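Batch job 17 of 40 flagged for manual review because the log was empty.
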Amino acid sequence: MADLLRLATPLGDMIAVADHALRLLEFHDRPELPAELARLGALKPGRNAVLEALKAQLRAYFAGASADFDLPLAPEGTAFQESLWAALRAIPAGQTRSYGAMAAEIGRPCAIRAVGRANGANRIALVIPCHRVVGATGGLTGYAGGIARKQALLRHETVSFPGQAGAKRAVLA
């Protein structure tokens, strides 16, 4: 049975689920959260080593000390989704990529809409940084945590981790 923990962040509370690996990290007000929790099966309020490491790494992230998350992950998706999620983890903090660029990155240049769906199916927010994907013109597009949060996350990363932000800087709109 996995442990469930509510974590306070500057952008609102998040719900985390982990056993031997992180299975879910979502903002508490995401509409799909109840269904996502139900799919994970039996859960109990609690703490474990993975959740304690996540808590410390989130604290460092929001303090601007580190954008690196080093946790065992169990995202549970299709092979296509998992290939996209792995590619998302390679986008440096403070940078963005378009859906089209991500489709090309995973070797499926015509699968732009599928990339959008897979991006939206990510259940491990921030650690698998789906917020770093933007529209073809660089505009902020859908984010399950809300566009205002996406904008705040990108602004935080651009300001806090300037050494990682390069030519493809985040759009701050």
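Reviewer: the log was empty due to a logging misconfiguration, but the result itself is present. The first helix runs from residue 33 to 39. Unflagging and moving on to job 18.
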